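Reviewer 2 asked us to include a model.

Predict the structure of this chain.
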Amino acid sequence: MIKKFCLFLFMMLFASSALADAGVNIFAYSRKVPETKIYDVYGKAFALKDFAGDFLIVVFWSKTCIPCIRELDNLSRFAEKTKDDGIKLILVSPAGDWVTEEEQQNFLDRYGGVGLEAYVDKKADLAKGFGIFTSPHTVLVNAESMEIGRIRGAIEWDDDEVIEEIYRIKASY
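Predicted model (structure tokens):
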């Protein structure tokens, strides 16, 4: 009985590690993105289709999510390294996180998210449209505004291998 339990525990730990190493879930078929609007710091509404032409990385995050906060500086460096290559990274947070847009920008600056484009999902409708209920959760959208994959959880965005993988995915879709 104890041997079976130990074997089960070992297999679960190994499986979790293998899944964590995979990181990216690319779909067999692309999907339409929801039409739901998100809002910039000036209150201007955008749909994800408004970013067509760029490979879009949409990071759903929250100021109450520790892994989200920890990856802000990595995201900032990633965005800076890839911005001239047709890759656009945006942050989407729930409106309830912020009293004012200035508060959001100050928070990003404080935790290393300098220069990141941040949007608000006023009623969490975009997150619901994607079926996202945890953060960080990243949606990958090709230049034709079709969802092609996701990344669940935090990763080291500015790691050279991660950047290479994003370029490979972008080139494939």
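DSSP finds six helices and eight strands in the chain. The first strand starts at residue 24 and ends at 32. We have added this to the supplementary material.
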